[in-house]
Each structure stands twice: as structure tokens, then as C-alpha cells.
Amino acid sequence: MGLIIDTNVFIDAENGRLDLSILSGLSAHGDAFIAAVTVSELLVGVHMAKTADIRIRRSAFVEGIIKHIPIMEFSMSVARTYGELYSHFLKPRNKSAKNVHDLQIAATAISHGFAVLTSNVEDFEKVPGLKVVKPNSKNK
């Protein structure tokens, strides 16, 4: 088993609401990874920074994550799982699924038999076959 870390965990860490040292306390779940789409979401945050100082600080933070946490690619297996999940959420509402990035993160986790570590449990709890882990609030 392993963990795919959701984007919001890194956003919480960058904003001082969560200490990334909690990852060492989650070793019972296996190694930690990030989905390729998480990298893109974090980089969007770099490019959307309101000031040059924030952009520089955020870029250093994101590059540190990319350097130290292995990235799970959006493979054919993940694409197939994502297609199944997206259609699952598309059918009942006959409209676009809630959050395509969250579904890509979920598909990455499911394809590898991993859980998702997220502060936004409600974004993932209805995904069939996905185990969700919430960071311990004592570590905030």
C-alpha cells in the first residue's frame, strides 16, 4: 500500500496549517507519492501568485516537493480508471463531474492500490474503491 498526497495537503503546509513531518507518521500506509496532476495544480499556484516574492517562495516550495516526493505518472492504467470514474459521476447528473483533478488523483491512487491523503475528505469519500486518509489534526 502507499499514499497519494492530495494537492490541498501541500497548500495547507505552505500556508502553515499543516506540518509535512506528519508524512513520517503515516509510514504504516506505505510510501508517499504525488500524482502528476498535483504537480500541475501546484505549478498553477506558482504562476497565479500575486507578487514576485510570493511566486519565488512558492516556486521554491513546489520544486522542493517535486525533488523529494516521487511522482506517479498519468499512465494508460490511470487513464482507464479515470475514464471509468468520470463516467460514474457524469451519468447521474448528466453534466460535468465535480472536480476532474480530484478524480485524476483518485484514479492514480486506485490504479496503484493506494489511499489518498487529503484534508478534504468530502471530495473523495464517494469515489468507489478508494481509501481516504485524513492528516491528523494534532499536527496542524
TrEMBL record:
Organism: Spartinivicinus marinus
A Pfam family reported for this protein in Swiss-Prot or TrEMBL: PIN
Cofactor(s) needed by this chain: Mg(2+)
Family: Belongs to the PINc/VapC protein family.
Transmembrane helix listed as a keyword: no
InterPro entries xref list: PIN-like_dom_sf, PIN_dom, Type_II_TA_system_RNase
Domain PIN residue range list: 4-129
GO MF entry, a single one: hydrolase activity
Protein name per its UniProtKB record: Type II toxin-antitoxin system VapC family toxin
Keywords: Hydrolase, Magnesium, Metal-binding, Nuclease, Toxin-antitoxin system
